[in-house]
Amino acid sequence: MNKPLSEYFSLKRRYSRSINLERDLDKIHALEGYIPTERSVDATRRIIAGFKGTSDHCAWTLTSVYGTGKSAFAHFFASLCAPETSEIRCSALEVASLTLGYHSSEYLALKENIPSVGLFRAIATAQREPISNTIVRALLKGAEVFWLPQEYNKLRVARKLVDLGTQVADGGRVDSREIPNLVKEVALAAATDVLLIIDELGKNLEFAVQNQGAEDLYLLQQLAELPKDKGYKVYIVGLLHQAFADYGERLASVQRNEWAKIQGRFEDIPFQDSPSQMMRLICQAIDRTGGERIRCAVHNQGVEWLEALPSDIRDDYTQALLFETYPLHPITALVMPMLCTRYAQNDRSLFTFLTSAEPYSFRNFLQETTVEGDVLPTLKLDRVYDYFIEAVGTGLASRPNLQRWVEIQNLIADAKRLDTDSLRVLKTIGILNLVTTRGAMRATRTLVTLAMCDSPSDSAKSNWEQVIENLLQKGIITYRRQLDELRIWQGSDFNVDVELAGYIENERSPIVKLLSDMRPLTPIVAQRHSYKTGTLRYFERQYIDGLEDLTQYGNYSTCLLFYQVFG
Description:
CATH class of the largest domain: Alpha Beta
Oligomer: single chain
Shape: extended
Low-confidence stretches: none
CATH architecture of the largest domain: 3-Layer(aba) Sandwich
CATH superfamily of the largest domain: P-loop containing nucleotide triphosphate hydrolases
Helix content: 40-55%
Mean pLDDT: 81
Number of domains: 3
């Protein structure tokens, strides 16, 4: 074939850019290709339950790390709440029908509980500012979208919003006590429910912590508890990167208790998909434009992998999934979601790895790698390691949850004298150690060897097995027999099994000596003899392991005396 992989595979445009809720509110291209995951379907159901009244909640927080699709879901849900005549609502309902089913109660609830005029969608991306300022910007954005210009200019509440928006833009601070009445005025003027979505809500919480703005934070509780006014309700959705309470962990206990009360008004929805679901997202992001020949080769290689993978890993795969995650190595496709879930930050999301032009990224791999011969090249774990180290660099040390990264990085840096193959194996073991020390993905010899091969029948398998053995002999990695796992991090050059076996061998003692040390025998007093003769006699007792040892304890007369005393 002799062509780069980028000739056959690329990334769909949708996944090359992140969603900006304010910018993309009514842009239909931002909705194209959206497929709800298990978590987004669950979130839709829970929010719709609030709309229907089957749930008491009217305020929710979506919580997860960066890059898990919270903003994309919020855009999808906001599109569902657009006016009935809008093209974007029709597209969103089509997506919902495919996922929920046309006849499902959730889909019917979407159509029945969202009025034809839609909801008043007040959407803003928060900054480090008072929550009242963010809400004003959200209401102003919603007013511009909801009303036509000729209607907008005639409304008193719209003019009020413009004045407050100018105040915010000039660096002023809106009095939080004005906001509840302002929201009610908007609902009455729009004659529909208000949907308030705040992206990056954590920035408001950080501002509240820094400025001790308890009364500002209390505004969230007031809005969540607003009673229906003439049948109109206010719904709030906040997007967070960590739990609500974690933002206030530096506050005094009294203040944290107040935060807990406010958080209690919100139903928290953890927005983290399983690794298998995230693999399906990877499949959706990859565009396969190659010809029939390479598709056939990928299919055949996928069949080989399905037979060769260990049984406890094979359960996570189907043949179609192996086909659709290529050019990622099957083990890389499983590990990447787990790695990003544990160690992701704003610059380390799964889709940043897929779409960025940074060194060692997936996009660069497609451009740099050429298809030659019958074996198709795959993106392996050692490249994932290089990507994280290159992209994050010295920033690893400043993050508490990345200290193990630092240990592994230092150990591999110390091993730079080794050949390239040894370093690649070290990086692969290091990544697997980071992901798990138990379960299917632990760094067994078999798994590490497979992770280094482009296909299960790769002729280089024996070479990688020898590389692993050489690293063990040099003490650079350790094999933990109890866990069937290879390890690399600080202290892994001390082989506990070997040292323990040597210690046991050196300390091996006869059982008689061990019993004498651990459970020494007490003397026996000849009580009856003492009563009869008035002479106290006692006999020491010793463990023996053979009759020949009796000679050291005296002659026949000693044994006869013992018999006479006790006999």
